[in-house]
Amino acid sequence: MTERVEGHGGALALAALRAHGVREMFTLSGGHVFPLYDAAHSTDFPIYDVRHEQSAVFAAEAVAKLQRRPGLAVLTAGPGVTNGISGMTSAFFNASPVLVLGGRAPQFRWGAGSLQEMDHLPLVAPVTKHAETVFSADDIPRAVSAALTTALTPHRGPVFLDFPLEAIFSVGDAELAAPAAIAPVEPDPDEVTKAARLIAAATRPVIIAGSDVYAGNAVAALREAAEALQVPVFTNGMGRGALPPEHPLAFAKARRTALNDADVVVVVGTPLDFRLSFGDFGDAAVVHVVDAPTQRAGHVQPAASPAGDLRLILSAFADHTGDRADHADWIARLRTAEDAAKARDAGEMAAETDPIRPARVYGELRRALAPDAITIGDGGDFVSYAGRYLEPSQPGTWLDPGPYGCLGTGLGYAMGARVSHPDRQICVLMGDGAAGFSLMDVESLVRQRLPVVIVVGNNGIWGLEKHPMRAMYGYDVAADLQPELRYDKVVEALGGAGETVAKAGDLGPALGRAFDAGVPYLVNVLTDPADAYPRSSNLA
Fold first, then answer.
1. What is the rounded distance in angstroms from the CA atom of residue 533 to the CA atom of residue 310?
2. Is the N-terminal amide bond of 355 cis, ω within 30° of 0?
3. b/e string for 86-99 if b means 16 or more Cβ within 10 A?
């Protein structure tokens, strides 16, 4: 079924966006994209603006991640687009279906030196699934619809369109087709059976579930497979919370024991990258389950690698009727290790130290956060502790930068999360280094009445760099920040509120005030600079 639409290029684009379920626009004002604003304003389509274009893309990505639908960022020509490239790259690594619409200098004057004239496509093409310049207003609805279909087709990811001035300001008309259905990718049944047999026959299997399990709406299928085959489950990224912490097969703290001793490691919906030792688990066989053939690892040879709709693959695992080994002793062994680690962590999270240890911050946060709170990690050293001490109880409640590791996601993600979930707690965990990238966008949150809580772990250093550099060279450079800087005063100056906490006993009351404030509120926690998160380097 098609519909005839007419209007200027902005109106034509918006008609296609609405048809695909896009419900808001994130942007930073620019004249090259005025028709998009005009179309939105005249039809009460929400516009949220930011102070740096990267935040617009990160906000759109948060919507895409949390709601599993397209997020939209609109960027003006030239520096507007280049400022958004880190956001596009993060979305590319995270398989987030983000559409970025860019302005573009007029084509009829191309080469004459118009304001912000540059060809964006060579820059954005490597970090998007599709990048195109649309030269005619009549062609805009087709291009927008096709781009959104591409963004939503597994393996999902960002797409980019730009419009020369004469195209977006011109009046046109076109047929607007109904959005194309995204057909599930059918996996090879023989590869699925091969993988299921390996898992069922293993004596010490482990599942690691990542972000694509949530993005592919495969959380229920994961639980069914784990319960049917009785396999312990660890998670990362947006896979966190797929099994609630109290589930008998949910594990978080016994990962080292599990991966050291497993005989089959099943990695579902996440790449075999530095976070997972590049797929090297000693003598264990690796089963890599991916949502598209393009995501199969090229640097290792898995024992099996089913590719396709994760719901279909995991449901097939659950339905496997072949011989199965008994995993009860293995599960019990991991539970013993898990319980021992939890007991150690409980002591650390209650530590009464001066200065405050990061673990204590997370101990207080565990008491303050509601089960459906959206928690956002934006930082290195301080946020590394979150993976150890916070255990999301529901899927779709954790956002981090993902494998690209880009700092500055925090307040853009917070904006997208607040727009997505107006009635939930939104909490940004931010290192003091990361605060330098996006803290100015507190003003955007204040002005648009989007309250969030920001917890800054303030140790006055770049923790993941200072200590390793000192260990390697005996000295460090470019690794210090101002000690005890008052980031809360910055937020107050921007219209929010906040306070500095220097004593562990003051953390709980400060967090209570923050979540009750109704405005952007920053809790500036002075943490111990000597207490850096221990980790081995996986950079190579």
1. 34
2. yes
3. bbbbbbbbbbbbbb
Structure tokens that stand for 137 in this block: 């207003």
**Pick from 385, 380, 430, 432: which is nearest to 410 by CA?**
430
Contact call for residues 287 and 206 (beta carbons, < 8 A): no
Cα torsion 307, 69, 146, 52: sign:
negative
DSSP secondary structure letter of residue 210: -
Full-model pTM: 0.96
Per-residue model confidence as pLDDT tens digits over 278-305: 999 999 999 999 999 999 999 999 999 9
- Which class is 189-334 in CATH? alpha beta
The CATH code for residues 351-526 is 3.40.50.970
Strands (E), 134-170: 159-164
Helices (H) and strands (E) in the chain, counts: 22, 18
Question: For the segment 223-246, what is each residue's pLDDT rounded down to a tens digit?
Answer: 999 999 999 999 999 999 999 999
Residue 187 is classified by DSSP as P
* Residue 331 backbone zone (phi > 0: left; psi -120 to 50: alpha; other: beta): alpha
pLDDT at 533: 57
* Cα Rg of the chain, angstroms: 24
Q: Strands 398-399 and 453-458, how do they pair?
A: unpaired
Instruction: Give buried/exposed letters for 155-193 (b at 16+ CB in 10 A, else e).
Output: bbbbbbbbbbbbbbbbebebebeeeeeeeebebeeebbb
**Could you tell me the CATH superfamily of domain 3-176?**
Thiamin diphosphate (ThDP)-binding fold, Pyr/PP domains (3.40.50.970)
Q: Supply the angle between the helices 9-19 and 34-42 in degrees, to the nearest 10.
A: 60
User: In the chain, where are the structural domains located?
Assistant: 3-176, 189-334, 351-526
Amino acid identity at 16: A
Residues 305, 290 contacting (CB under 8 angstroms): yes
Contacts of residue 360, defined as CB under 8 A and 6 or more positions apart, other chains included, come to 348, 349, 350, 351, 352, 353, 504, 507
In sign, the C-alpha dihedral spanning 474, 480, 483, 487 is: negative
Question: Roughly what angle, to the nearest 10 degrees, separates helices 381-389 and 358-368?
Answer: 50
The angle that helices 219-229 and 189-201 make with each other, rounded to 10 degrees, is 50
Q: Give the 3-state secondary structure of 395-454.
A: CCCEECCCCCCCCCCHHHHHHHHHHHCCCCCEEEEEEHHHHHHHHHHHHHHHHCCCCCEE
Please state the φ and ψ torsions of residue 323, each to the nearest 5 degrees. Answer: -60, 145
Cβ-count burial 410-446 (b if 16+ within 10 Å, e if not):
bbbbbbbbbbbbeeebbbbbbbbbbbebbbebbbbbb
